[in-house]
Design goal:
The chain has 9 helices and 45 strands. The protein has 688 residues and is mainly beta. The structure holds copper (II) ion.
Length: 688
């Protein structure tokens, strides 16, 4: 169905805004067939466009936007970074009702800020399917001779249904690493030499596991909905234009570089900052940056946004002349990268030195460039260089509330959380209107997390003290600590979450509630978080010497497992257990086992015990049965190459199973095994 787009201005004279205008938008939210890869698939679109049409308004205007949901499922629209009344924020169930199928919703709020922002669905994983667009909020009066500005909205695309992406991540953390050929196997560790080997041992010994940049293998990276995008420079004599960069991806970070020379950052997350010149800019998911770039009548300069795992990029060519390409950004070498490097923002793949001052001098008549700008930052990966244009110090003489949040997760089971608890388990953080809130964010995981607070700007405390920049989204690198502070000047309830949609939906979310005015209902956590549900992670092993079915159903905290194996002759073993996961490293279980060994008769036992991950990432199971028999079992696996792996298990009853596995796809593998009970054999393994 074609979407209707209505765009009118009305004078707004008799109301509370004496100088503003009512800006009206009206869109359908509907499905749309797209073909980004050669395959046609069904996506979701606002106004029949991906990205959605750009919404523009000026400070003092009232924005009234109506959305008609033509989908068979409910939808929502959140205004990312826009300050507005809570009931317009668009988080379903928390502060705005979802737009039910066939229903419409009209948002209406005054515009009280300027800058580059974006809007997107906050329902399910609809962002991944196309429901995102740009917002430009301008000054009341456009300054004379103002420079041409253009949106460049980056995103990531997979032909696969995002719900199935998440189920696959729940089955195996390396599900997409296999597809991307980025499995961190031992052949690569060895090829990278001594330091990589030391890293691997220390990461296994400390049980941290290896560094991970991106969980998902994307089919395309897009800029304004295209792999290759063109921007026309209107004025042939123009020397520079303003690019409003938006990372509207679902879970990608981009390294952005411009072929026409350093970009001058003048705003971050819609807020003005002192201009700085940057050769390569790391953009976390959901951040925006306004940058000035040089243009030329003779050249078409490439703006390249490379996914920071090196798996692909989008190109935007600015201008109409001969093409000038941005350099390739080498894929980072995860084997040589240690957590400290990432926490400090040092990227081992780039030259750490800044460019020489002479080379970096502003071209000819870039007036107004300050001395500080002579320096060009080679690769900006954190916020140390951002300086607000005025003091951002919070009101003095107020109470401070200190909140400590550890970003936590279990990559193996793909559960993400704060302080070890998902939203469903620990939902609210209470604050009071009129206090200053300081949050110390410590990232205890091996991934980056882009954290976003609704309804407020926070200061990201950096070396510039009083002039620490204001942002709405902040990256916390692996093992890194970031301190943010905000003025609690709102009411009711606001979401705080990782903007990696797959992390948000699996638990890394909290609600900031103003004590006196909160309307939060604990039951809503379940509804906000539909992906905190049961996931299946199972394996079938059909071997010449036995058949083994390993079936597991779990949510973030509980698991039910059924393991059955048999040689269909004189031996079998069936074990049914319930597991409670306390942490990444520790879980307890209880259940029943029935087994028969060769000549012996069938016997059944009740069993109970715990699992604990030992250094070198060896899983240990300590169990006792109702006859007082005690058993310890150890198991682990080694990935030699992308396809070739080895796993083993051994227990104190002298039972063992060794298996060599050769993956022909992520789900199917040839296996050769040796089992103490069933002897030797060959067969196939299937992951489902
Ligand atoms: Cu995250």
């Amino acid at each position: 169905m074609l979407a209707r787009v209505l765009f009118t201005f009305l004078m707004f004279s008799h109301s509370f805004l004496v100088y503003g205008e009512m800006v009206l938008y009206e869109f359908d939210i509907d499905t749309k067939l797209v073909n980004f890869t050669g395959t046609t698939v069904e996506a979701l679109a606002i106004g029949d466009q991906i990205p959605a049409p750009t919404i523009e308004a000026r400070i003092g205007d009232v924005l009234r936007a109506t959305f008609h949901n033509r989908l068979g499922v409910s939808a929502s629209v959140h205004w990312h970074g826009v300050l507005l009344p809570g009931d317009q924020d668009g988080v379903p169930f928390l502060n705005t009702q979802p737009i039910a199928p066939g229903q419409s919703f009209t948002f209406e709020f005054p515009i009280i800020q300027t800058g580059t922002y974006w809007y997107h669905s906050h329902s399910d994983l609809q962002v991944q399917r196309g429901i995102y667009g740009a917002i430009i909020l301008r000054e009341k009066d456009q300054p004379p001779n103002s420079i041409q500005d253009e949106i460049v909205l980056f995103s990531d695309w997979t032909d696969e249904d995002p719900g199935s992406v998440l189920s696959n991540l729940k089955k195996d953390r390396d599900y997409y690493a296999y597809k991307k050929n980025s499995v961190q196997s031992w052949d690569k560790v060895l090829a990278n030499g001594g330091r990589a080997i030391r890293n691997r041992f220390s990461q296994s010994f400390t049980r941290m596991g290896s560094m991970d940049l991106a969980d998902i293998a994307y089919d395309r990276f897009l800029a304004n909905g295209k792999s290759e995008n063109k921007l026309i420079v209107n004025d042939i004599n123009a020397e520079q234009i303003l690019l409003r960069l938006i990372n509207g991806s679902t879970s990608s970070y981009f390294d952005v570089e411009y072929a026409g020379g350093p970009m001058t950052i003048i705003a971050a997350d819609g807020q003005d900052v002192e201009p700085i010149r940057v050769k390569r800019l790391r953009m976390s998911t959901a951040e925006t940056y306004d940058v000035l770039v040089r243009v030329s009548a003779e050249a078409s300069f490439e703006l390249r946004a490379t996914s920071f795992d090196g798996s692909g990029f989008s190109s935007t060519f600015v201008g109409a002349g001969d093409r000038v390409y941005a350099p390739d950004v080498p894929a980072p070498n995860l084997f040589l990268m240690e957590a400290d490097d990432m926490a400090m923002g040092i990227d081992m793949t780039t030259t750490p030195e800044h460019q020489g001052a002479a080379e970096a001098m502003p071209k000819s008549d870039d007036k107004g460039m300050e001395a500080a700008m002579i320096e060009v930052i080679a690769h900006m990966t954190d916020y140390q260089h951002l300086v607000a244009t005025a003091s951002t110090v919070l009101p003095t003489q107020r109470d401070w509330r200190q909140i400590d949040l550890t970003l936590s997760g279990n990559m193996e089971r793909y559960v993400w959380s704060f302080n070890g608890a998902t939203l469903r388990e620990d939902d609210q953080i209470l604050i009071r209107k009129g206090e200053n809130v300081r949050i110390t964010l410590y990232n205890g995981t091996m991934m980056h997390h882009p954290l976003h607070l609704h309804g407020h700007f926070f200061r990201v405390v950096n070396q510039h003290g009083d002039r620490s920049p204001l942002k709405h989204t902040v990256n916390v690198p692996p093992m890194g600590t970031v301190v943010i502070e905000f003025d609690a000047n709102e009411e009711k309830d606001w979401l705080f979450h990782c903007h990696n949609q797959y992390h948000m939906k699996t638990g890394m979310t909290r609600v900031f509630s103003y004590e006196e005015t909160s309307t939060y209902d604990a039951d809503t956590a379940r509804v906000i978080q539909p992906y905190l549900r049961w996931f299946n992670r199972s394996k079938l092993d059909a071997q010449s010497n036995f058949l083994d079915l390993d079936y597991s159903l779990s949510d973030e905290r509980h698991g039910f497992q059924l393991e059955a194996d048999s040689n269909f002759d004189d031996g079998y073993e069936i074990e049914a257990t319930y597991t409670y996961y306390f942490s990444r490293f520790f879980s307890t279980f209880t259940g029943v086992e029935r087994r028969k060994h060769e000549e012996q008769a069938d016997t059944s036992y009740a069993i109970a015990g715990f699992n604990y991950t030992l250094p070198l990432l060896i899983d240990s199971e300590w169990r006792v049965d109702d006859e007082g028999e005690f058993r310890v079992e150890l198991e682990s696996e080694l990935q030699f190459t992308r396809r070739l792996g080895f796993d083993w298990r051994w227990n104190t009853d002298k039972e063992y199973r060794y298996r060599l596995k050769y993956n022909i796809s992520k789900r199917w593998a040839f296996t050769v095994n040796s089992d103490s009970e069933y002897g030797n054999g060959v067969g196939m393994q299937y992951l489902f």
